[in-house]
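User: Can you recover a sequence for this backbone? Please restate the input before giving your answer.

Assistant: Of course. Working from this structure:
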């Protein structure tokens, strides 16, 4: 009897610690890109960049992410070592931003953001399957907590950096910004390493626990099943268009607020904070509702509302109403990230979770790489406001791919 009670009690306590630690690390992986979005208008002015060149900066970052995501997922599923990989990912995100503080070359800037794309996209194939396995019946809620960490980093970074820009230059900020990432990398390596050691020590009580890695033959068989998985393909492509919307918005919303509406860095940071804070509030609501009502219904509703709000923003133009719509957009646009991830993990084998998430984020990164360069070209030719009509179109396309997924595939599959 005593051996039967230990497996029931131990995993939730262990998993709860992992959830909070990994979510804090996730916040920092988002802190750095969110900082960069706020600094990008300043960098663009200093280097004399056009809208297309500004868009190309983000395109390079996401092309690198698209290329590195699937290999990153393969590394997670075959090698394991979750703590080491998450610590390496966080360090690799922060260090290139440090290098940016010392460059005056546009080409070197592109190299640095490409390095960020590689490091940032190693995080998700490692962290998301780890959390999903800890709470198999509450994937939506647990992954929304992980998503809230990302939203917190996205929200707090522009607010803090906007205030710091009143005192420091953007170059000084990217140098100072490297410190928290380095500290958190050490904490992740130390603490998750301890957890992994504890798992090995308690291996008899966790008989159903999955191994850290798997053989190449087993992995090859699992990979073949993934490339034939219709739900995985449709979710990934739909998510790519959603990410195209999000990344283009994050690239040009600060530029619009600074260039067209004349907002100071503090006010631009405040608007970006509102966008992400709304997403922070929406994530656990959407995650919990998707666990009870189904993934498909929540995703499609959120995407439709995102498209509607983007059209309203374009019509609002350079008025105060534009700023008010930012919070509404953030609520719907960011609510569905953890729901998409939970749905994907339910539709794919558990031992291929890292590769599944790597494929999702790889295709997302491809979409994200296209959006900013297209949005920049449209802004150069038709004006910056035309970009927001483009975003409304891309989120509608995203919803069409979700609609093509069979309705039964959107139900929670806790048995997976």
């Amino acid at each position: 009897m005593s051996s039967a009670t230990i497996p029931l009690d131990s995993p939730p306590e262990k998993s709860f610690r992992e959830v909070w630690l990994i979510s804090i690390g996730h916040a920092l992986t988002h802190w750095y890109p969110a900082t960069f979005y706020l600094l990008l208008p300043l960098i663009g002015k200093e280097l004399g960049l056009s809208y297309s060149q500004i868009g190309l900066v983000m395109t390079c970052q996401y092309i690198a992410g698209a290329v590195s995501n699937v290999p990153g997922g393969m590394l997670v599923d075959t090698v394991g070592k979750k703590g080491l990989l998450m610590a390496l990912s966080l360090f690799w995100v922060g260090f290139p931003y440090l290098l940016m503080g010392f460059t005056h070359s546009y080409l070197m800037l592109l190299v640095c953001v490409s390095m960020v794309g590689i490091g940032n996209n190693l995080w998700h194939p490692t962290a998301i399957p780890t959390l999903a396995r800890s709470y198999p019946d509450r994937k939506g809620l647990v992954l929304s907590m992980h998503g809230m960490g990302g939203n917190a980093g996205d929200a707090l970074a522009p607010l803090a950096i906007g205030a710091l820009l009143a005192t420091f230059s953007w170059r000084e900020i990217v140098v100072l910004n490297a410190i928290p990432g380095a500290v958190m990398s050490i904490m992740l390596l130390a603490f998750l390493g301890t957890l992994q050691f504890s798992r090995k020590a308690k291996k008899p009580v966790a008989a159903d626990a999955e191994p850290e890695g798997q053989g190449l033959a087993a992995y090859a068989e699992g990979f073949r099943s993934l490339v034939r998985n219709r739900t995985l393909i449709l979710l990934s492509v739909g998510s790519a268009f959603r990410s195209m919307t999000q990344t283009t918005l994050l690239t040009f919303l600060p530029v619009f607020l600074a260039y067209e509406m004349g907002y100071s860095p503090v006010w631009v940071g405040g608007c970006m904070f509102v966008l992400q804070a709304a997403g922070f509030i929406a994530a656990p609501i959407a995650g919990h509702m998707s666990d009870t009502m189904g993934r498909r219904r929540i995703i499609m509703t959120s995407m439709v509302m995102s498209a509607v709000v983007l059209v309203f923003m374009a019509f609002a133009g350079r008025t105060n109403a534009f700023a008010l719509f930012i919070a509404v957009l953030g609520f719907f646009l960011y609510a569905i990230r953890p729901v998409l991830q939970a749905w994907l993990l339910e539709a794919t084998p558990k031992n291929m979770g890292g590769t599944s998430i790597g494929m999702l984020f790889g295709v997302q990164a491809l979409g994200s790489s296209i959006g900013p360069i297209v949005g920049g070209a449209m802004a150069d030719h038709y004006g910056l406001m035309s970009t927001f009509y483009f975003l409304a179109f891309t989120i509608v396309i995203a919803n069409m791919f979700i609609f093509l997924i069979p309705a039964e595939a959107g139900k929670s599959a806790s048995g997976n």
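That completes the design. The mean pLDDT is 79.
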